[in-house]
């Protein structure tokens, strides 16, 4: 009987290990651009793996040397499957600093005002934005 118990315990352990290797909460966040309410959001993995060739999302910073010093301009841009697109710009130091939080599989959210200036930039880097294709 002890031998059968050990086999059963080993089988349960193997089943648990193989289940754990593929388990995990996943929450893709497809890109959505809302031109009426002036915000965009989505995760970079969903954007990159979209079935169309118009979906994208991201933020960046450009630093330009001028005679008066260095000018930093940040931007966030997104386009969704409905072909709604927008790019906002900022020179706000806090929003520029926020762009440093991005990672390869970040969820990105940003908003803009009537003049096209970024008013909010946010990132969330979570394991559930990864896909099975990324996990080896």
Report on the structure:
- The chain has 136 residues and is an alpha+beta fold.
- The protein has one domain.
- The protein is 24% helix and 38% strand.
- The chain has 3 helices and 7 strands, in the order H-E-E-H-E-E-E-H-E-E.
- It has helices at residues 2-22, 44-48, 93-98; strands at 32-34, 39-43, 56-66, 69-79, 85-90, 106-112, 118-125.
- A 4-stranded antiparallel beta sheet has the order 1-2-6-7.
- A hairpin with a 5-residue loop joins strand 6 (106-112) and strand 7.
- The longest helix has 21 residues, at 2-22.
- It is globular.
- Residues 1-23 form the signal peptide.
- Keywords: Signal.
Features of the shown structure:
globular; 136 residues; disordered N terminus; 7 strands; four-stranded antiparallel beta sheet; three-stranded antiparallel beta sheet; alpha+beta
Summarize this entry quickly.
By secondary structure, the chain is of the alpha+beta class. A hairpin with a 2-residue loop joins β3 and β4.
Can you tell me the residue ranges where pLDDT is under 50 for at least 5 consecutive residues?
3-21
Main sheet summary:
4 strands, antiparallel
The N- and C-terminal alpha carbons lie at a distance of 39 Å
Assembly annotation: single chain
Average pLDDT, to the nearest integer?
82
* Number of spatially distinct domains: 1
Count of helical regions = 3
Give the overall form: globular
Count every beta strand, where a strand is a DSSP E run of 2 or more residues.
Answer: 7
Strands of the widest sheet, in order across it, are 1-2-6-7
Rg, alpha carbons: 22 Å
């Amino acid at each position: 009987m002890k031998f059968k118990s050990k086999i059963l315990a080993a089988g349960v352990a193997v089943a648990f290990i193989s289940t754990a290797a593929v388990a995990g909460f996943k929450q893709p966040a497809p890109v959505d651009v809302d031109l009426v309410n002036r915000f965009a959001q989505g995760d970079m993995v969903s954007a990159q793996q979209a079935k169309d060739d118009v979906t994208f999302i991201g933020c960046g910073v450009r630093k330009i040397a001028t005679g008066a010093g260095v000018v930093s301009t940040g931007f966030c841009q997104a386009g969704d499957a409905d072909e709604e697109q927008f790019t906002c710009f900022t020179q706000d130091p806090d929003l520029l600093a926020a762009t440093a939080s991005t990672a390869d599989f970040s969820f990105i959210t940003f908003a803009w005002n009537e003049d096209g200036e970024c008013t909010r930039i946010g990132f969330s880097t979570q394991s559930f934005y990864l896909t099975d294709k990324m996990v080896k």
